[in-house]
Amino acid sequence: MSAYLPLASHEDDDAEEINPPFSQSRNEIRRSRNSKLLVASFVVFASILLFTFDVVYINIPHPFAKAYPNSASNALESFMSHLFPIGMPNRTDNWENENSKAMRKLIACMKTNTCGGNQTSIVLMSSFHFSNSIHGHVSGEDIWALSILNALTEMGYTAIFAPDNRELARTYRTYPDLVKVVIAEGDQAMQCFNDPVCIKSPTHPLGIPAWKMLSFHFWRGSANPLGSKWTLSPENYGVIDPHGNSVDNVYLGYSIERACMKIPFVPSGERPKQVYVFAKYSGYFSGNDYAYPNQTFVPPSDEPSLFDLKIVAGLRSATDGEVPEAIHDLGTLNKEAFYEQLGKSRALIGVGRPNLSPSPYDAMCMGVPFINPILVFDSNHPEDRTKWFTQHDGLKYQNPPYVYHVKKGDSEGFWQAVKEAVEHPIERYIVPEMTMDALKMRVAAIVEKDWKSMGAEVLRERQKSGEGEVCPSLYLLFPKMLT
Ligand SMILES: *[C@@H]1O[C@H](CO)[C@@H](O)[C@H](O)[C@H]1NC(C)=O
Ligand SMILES: *[C@@H]1O[C@H](CO)[C@@H](O)[C@H](O)[C@H]1NC(C)=O
Ligand SMILES: *[C@@H]1O[C@H](CO)[C@@H](O)[C@H](O)[C@H]1NC(C)=O
Description:
By secondary structure, the chain is α/β, with parallel strands linked by helices. The protein has helices at residues 5-18, 26-57, 63-80, 95-112, 128-134, 140-154, 165-174, 186-193, 237-240, 257-261, 335-343, 359-365, 411-423, 436-448, 451-465, 472-477; strands at 122-126, 158-161, 179-185, 213-216, 231-233, 250-251, 274-278, 310-313, 327-329, 348-350, 370-376, 389-390, 403-407. Residues 1-26 are annotated as: Disordered.
């Protein structure tokens, strides 16, 4: 919000000029007006001079040729010094601060006509997960958000944070034409759609057009007033779950490539005989989703590859259930310690929860295969993966040596998978759709897509069928369709 304070204080300055203090005499006012006129005419004169100089001499090497851009940039700098101040130049974890940096760069490049390819295309990051992600939060949504931000900025787009709807509406109306799309939380998009001071309408023309609002939704299902086609998903739900309710969701996906490549790879020869059990809470070792009920984690003694295998976990809380025997608890691990332990393990063992976590992708990128439990399958067609429900459905079509699938309760299959994983080390592996390049292509596609025409189609369908809401902003944008 502080990004907007300078504007407010600027307005205060104007107010003082219009209502001078009583002590100021009329003459003083006139004098000040005259001097302003003088300054103004000088500026006009100077601009004509500089413009002429610019056009006529631009290609001629001359000492002045260097002086001109400097004086222009000095003028810009002095103008900019009143707008979007950067309170903490050395920080990158504060969204207000990042907004100021981006706005300064944008205004400067627009003024000097030097904007990069996509710089004048703004994407409003209107989910708290975006601001949280630069602040260091690491939930699945935060990791997803950070990779979208990285993809946008690597392609030169201007990303501006607006974590709630008030901030969103206020930001949007400042430069509506520059905003290509808004990426919002699902419930936020719903609220904005029904909020007359958020959505665009005949009485709120600078509001956000419904078709520009995309929902940032980690789970299955639609989370946007205009439906699944405006709902962005981290996984390709249409492929994972072709019989489900998310076939029309937009697969945006994410990439852990940049973060993972910064972590050194441990060659298999240097790894201890260790596997990592993926469970933050001891509660994950019970309940309906627990994949290995009635099973011990003590490796079978007749299996040489598993002899002396160390089975570790980093439990944040061991108070909400029993931890199976043979699991060595390393206690609460911070992010670095977790990656260190994971990176020197020979397999990551899923126990049923958490669902769709990014960690198995990190693991494979660090050369650690994942054991993905199958919690539900069709007993008539046990190998039909479209009917599987696994801990990580984003990986259910992957195969060994990267991903091993084990049916819930299949103790023998479990140990077979652990053995195979330990015996077949892998190099770094990033699922092809999850490389940064693949992500950038999808991000570019959603930013550049003709959402407006699609919105018109939805409106037409809804008017014809009488089903679904018809938003005021759609009326405003397509008035002819109302006749
Ligand atoms: C910020 O960074 C600049 C240049 O990188 C450095 O000179 C300055 O000391 C830093 N300030 C703080 C408060 O760290
Ligand atoms: C601008 O975005 C497009 C995708 O929309 C991308 O292909 C291109 O490389 C980007 N331009 C720059 C200068 O990064
Ligand atoms: C685990 O054991 C209980 C009773 O000991 C039994 O009811 C249950 O079916 C078993 N579960 C599996 C998956 O084998």
